[in-house]
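Aim 2 progress update. The chain analyzed this quarter is reproduced below.
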Amino acid sequence: MTIEQLFGTLQQSIVDIWQAHLKADKHSTHVVLDEYYKDMPELIDTLIENYMGRYGKVLSYENTLNVGSFTSPAEYLSALRNLVGEFRSKITASELQSDIDAILSFIDSTVYKLRELCNESEVEFTLELGAGTPNQRLVESCKGCKKDKEEECELAGKKKKHLKDRFDKEEECEMKVKEDRLSLKDYLMSL
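Predicted structure tokens:
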């Protein structure tokens, strides 16, 4: 990989992730990708300017990663991370290695968020936004899944546990709290 390819691939990653951000079907994925395409340009710009300050202008850029060959943003960013990591060993200037390390760290953080945080609580997040009872929102969040009485459903190609029992308990707790409030109000009124 040449420096032109590194810079071009990094720059293209911003556009590719921005487009993935616009296509995201999960709010958490949308937010994580939003962070990437908003914050990564500064890290890339710093690396390129520092490199050109030390070695001279780079006039052409070439992308080496085809985003279409990856099944997810996390997979794409992992491949990008590998390319950047391989190139780091070719750079001997410690300040440029630091710039590359900042980029690698940011990619690692983004991949972590996509893999570990975007899949958790996505159903819960969807439910909090919906109208109706928790169980109605649960069924809506499963995007048409009619298995509201079963423990698992298909959601985005993965098995997700229904939260029906939890919401049944929450409804019971809400009713109990309302009853307790009424009891307390009656008690206070009787004083």
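The first strand starts at residue 152 and ends at 155. The mean pLDDT is 76. These observations will guide the mutagenesis experiments scheduled for the next reporting period.
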